[in-house]
Structures are given as structure tokens and as C-alpha cells.
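Supplementary Note 3. Input sequence used for the single-chain structure prediction.
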Amino acid sequence: MRELHGLSKHRLYSVWKSLKTRCYNNKHIQYKDYGGRNITICNEWLNSFLSFYDFCISHGWLDGLEIDRINNDGNYEPNNVQFITCLENCTVGKKRKYENNKSGYNGVHYSFIRNKFISRISINGKRIHLGSFNTKVEALQARIDAELLYFNEQLTNL
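The predicted structure, written as C-alpha cells, is reproduced below.
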């Protein structure tokens, strides 16, 4: 049965639809990072936008905030989400290590063409090249130094 709610133009409706697409549509570009990693949405939210909407409104969501999974390997469910700003979400993401990053550190990768480790950082959506280095340790140190300079804290987990 189709749910009638009159909220299809509300920002949370597009958030809900986006979560469902990333988790369940294997043709979506981000599926590999969500559904491909077995990230799901609890049945209560999956089957009812109103349930998702009511939870968000009653737990601090405001326009301009994003939904974030507290445990990056956990599902979208009431005990594993928080509402944070885009900047906070980017900071949280920078602390996470990704399997496809062979160096093990965000912003540091090995270039086979240059035979060097490359260090980069993103500031306000702009990627800044920090240098090419002979060792991973040197590249990592450049990344940490840049984090301290731009964010006043080390974001990379060691």
C-alpha cells in the first residue's frame, strides 16, 4: 500500500530516497560504498518515510544538517545515526580509512608513474597538492602538517 503523507517536496524525503538508492540499487554510483558493503536501512524506515521523518524531526534534524552513521560499518537505524553539519561530516569522513586506499591513509597514495608517494588535502572542495615524497612516512607527515595548519587538529588516524 502506498503511503500518503504530502511531504514529497520536503528535504528529508530526498534524503530518505537517496539512502534507499545507495543501499539497494546496485546500478547507483555509490552502491559499492553502501549496499555493496551490506549497509542497509532498518525495516521501520525502509518501509515508511513517515517513520523516518518522525524520527529525524524528534531527534534534532534541522535543515542544513546531514545524516551520518556513527559506526561507518553499521546500518541506517535509530541507534546508529546522528545529525551533523556538512563540515563535521567531511571531518568524520577524513578520519575513516578506506579499503581501496593502498597506503592506509586518506590523502596519501603511491604513484607508480612518479615512483613516489603523493600527499594531498582538500580545503573547501579544492584539492591541494602537498608534494611528492620518497617514503610513505614523509607523505603522511606532510598531510598531518597540513591538517594542523588548515584545521588546527590532526584528522588522520595513525
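The longest strand covers residues 116-123. The domain at 97-151 is CATH 3.30.730.10 (GCC-box Binding Domain).
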